[in-house]
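fold-stage: in
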Amino acid sequence: MLVATALLVAACSASGGSTSGPTTTAPLAPGSDWSGVFTPVDVPAPVNGLTAVSCASATVCWAVGATAGAGGGADAAAIITTNDGGATWTAQTVPSSVGSLSGVACSDRLTCVAVGQAAEPPSGAGAIVTTTDGGATWITEPVPTTALAVTAVTCLPSGRCTAMATTASGTTALVATAPFASWSTAGPLPPGVSDADSVDCIDTSNCWATGESPSTAGHVTGTVLGSTDGGATWVTLPVPTGAGQLDGVSCVQGPVDQAGQPPSSSTTAAATGAAPATTTTSTSAVPTPGVAGVRCAVVGTTEPVADDTRSGAGVIDTTDNGGATWTTEPTPPSVAALFGVSCPALGACVAVGTTVASVPAAGAVIATGDPDDPWSRPGTVRFPQSLDAVSCVSESACVAVGEALIAHLGVGGAA
């Protein structure tokens, strides 16, 4: 399969620092500090689509997705890896007990966790596979029996991982403290929240996740959840109204105010089960929403009908206090939905998704501009097919994946 790769060779980085790359390349997009060119990349056959990616360094990444079933047969789970920043990819062996994979997260260049669903129909069961040898072997781990599917995962450099699992009663967090440590049930998300497609933790206590809550018949409202106790308790955060589906979250710890105190002692949560969502004040004994100094970006679409994404408009919501308050950022009118976001540093994020149905090029990348006002003049690049996920390890090295497509963003001289 031939896929597109964006190879950025920039004269300056998003933070204004110089690089050793060429200085005569074209701008990535209006409003972006990056410059570069796009080149095609071969992905190992028969990989057909990629849903998640995680980079342990500027050169080492893993992506998961599905293969095209031979002779009209069923698709199978796929794991691929690169050791040169996305220029070339190699397929790795997935245990036969795994039916599909939806998420991947890496702690270092050797240790990764991939999550999804087991191959046994019809009721399904969650699947988690782990490698500690760079993918030479992937080993199936025991999953709590209540998990029907594991939809997202994030891992810290220490090896602690947090995942989201679908159960018969809703959605719950799973936690493993180290590679091959037992996965245990941490705590449920609020009632009614489903499709937790993204989770991000900045340490062992503070995590954020995206999900959906039902509104009117056949419609959903995007929801962001926060936990300040390692996933044991989750609170609905007061994101702005208007999001139909929220699919990606990325958070970075920034400076704190008043010796690290949260911005407010009051608890504000978005009410679920109504469209549009309203905000209410809660006095229950739950963790206070918001973490001082933490900047997060959440992405999605205004389209309220699940899986109908090219009919809406892209959504970017940001917070600089860990979710206590949020701001809706402007998005280009050509972007219909954003599925993934990665913020490797303060004021530096890349979001990926799809364009509106009337635009022939179906994929979109939005890269922040000036770190002091990152979303005011972002750069936008279109791709032939939709992009579903992105992983950035710095302002100069990102890999995005999607429908039979890989986009590699790398700065000249990056290691």
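fold-stage: in (second)
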Amino acid sequence: MPPATFPTAVPAGRVPSGQVLLALALLACYPFSMVLPRTWGWENGVLEVLQVLVLLAGAALALRAWGRMRPLPIAALALCVAPVWIVLAARELSWGAVFMAPQALTDHGPVFTSRTLWYKPLVAPVVGLLLGVALVHACRRRLDRVALQLLRAGRIPWLVLGLAVLAEAGSSCAEGHLSCTFALRAPHAQVLEELIELFAYLALLVGQASLFRGSVPPPVAAALEPAESLP
């Protein structure tokens, strides 16, 4: 397969306005967590519902990108990403437990658990199979080559990915999993955790859109070899 080329995402030294807005949104999570209703941070609350919607949108857009870019090699990347979004959405839904009656009602909202689900023993094998198939597909389509080409073209959205990682760290900190604190009372810390997690998913969604959008303009698409020809 001859080396494929991808257009650069933005001119050198220029940061996309969308990424700047993301950075400002991350900073705004803290003050917003102190004014939003505490019920928004509850399990299966407003913020968790928004998280699931973002994750499902990520899966839908990945599948759309796969259909739009076929049979180009980068289409395989979109197809492999879709199951990851789906697994994350299922995890936020406690693998379906949120559709059942809560196990308990506390001052911090309802408590849902997947331990009582009759199909709980099947969750791990199904998730493993789904991600395993995606990994095998990635290896067969040699997505390492595609990733290297995207890296050389400067199309990897490092700032967005960095913001997502930073947001996940902040969410863990607000939840008390790391040795740090935001000096917030429990209800506000719970809202902050869910708000930052929502931001992290939004950042990944923006990163995916940035990666796939404009990756295959007509001149480049004509030069790329179909994915089916890859070993």
